[in-house]
TrEMBL record:
It comes from the Bacteria. Keywords: Signal. The lineage of its organism: Bacteria, Pseudomonadati, Planctomycetota, Planctomycetia, Gemmatales. Residues 1-24 form the signal peptide. This is Uncharacterized protein.
């Protein structure tokens, strides 16, 4: 009797085993990948790296946008005639490496002074001057790059970048006397600077800030 039961159970197991193989195709590796991330930490390092670099990439694009802009002061006021600065600007773009840009930006014509007589048509006057200036840019770039290079000109109204000139001028003037930066340096030149014979030289020397010997670190 027991021998018959053993044979019966063996037959049942043999008949069920193939069904289990058919319905369960997962392997030990599949179970492992379902519980852990096999791409750790590379996947997360990549996401973190992109999050850090993305703002710098946008900053670089903003700088390129400004560098490829032809501003109002590159033209004679109120006209589509390039001045010397405008010609040099386009020359620099034509010589850019690894290749010159084919998309150039143009500041909208803000140098048309509004008056009571032209307020109702100021927008049309700007559009007309923008179109003529864009044509001038394309015509000049054709002389530099050849007629087969198509130049696109896009008009924008972004604020011109800049900074107060006195900061750069002060730093340049103080570079010959040992420029120093510091909290007490006023405009970045070390305050009033050291004195010689009772007259300020406008600079700063090592160990001084604004003509007074520093006491930090004592």
């Amino acid at each position: 009797m027991s021998r018959c039961c053993s044979i019966l159970w063996a037959g049942v197991l043999l008949s069920v085993a193939p069904l289990g193989c058919v319905h369960s195709q997962s392997t030990l590796g599949d179970h492992y990948r379902n519980w852990v991330d096999p791409a750790w930490p590379q996947r997360y390092n990549y996401a973190a790296r992109q999050a850090v670099l993305a703002p710098f990439a946008q900053q670089a694009l903003n700088g390129q946008f400004l560098n490829h802009t032809v501003w109002n002061w590159h033209f004679e006021t109120g006209t589509d005639r390039l001045n010397g600065a405008g010609i040099e600007k386009l020359n620099s773009l034509a010589r850019a490496t690894p290749q010159p840009p084919t998309r150039i930006y143009l500041q909208t014509a803000r140098d048309i002074a509004p008056t009571p007589e032209n307020l109702d048509k100021l927008s049309a006057l700007r559009d007309d001057l923008n179109a003529r200036r864009a044509a001038t840019i394309r015509k000049y770039m054709t002389t530099q790059l050849g007629p087969n290079v198509e130049i696109e000109v896009y008009v924008h109204d972004a604020p011109p970048p800049g900074m107060p000139a006195r900061f750069g001028a002060r730093a340049f003037a103080d570079s010959a006397t040992g420029y120093q930066g510091g909290i007490g340096g006023g405009l970045g030149g070390g305050g009033a600077g050291p004195t010689t014979g009772g007259t300020s030289t406008g600079g700063a020397t090592p160990g001084t800030a604004g003509g007074t010997t520093g006491s930090m670190g004592r």
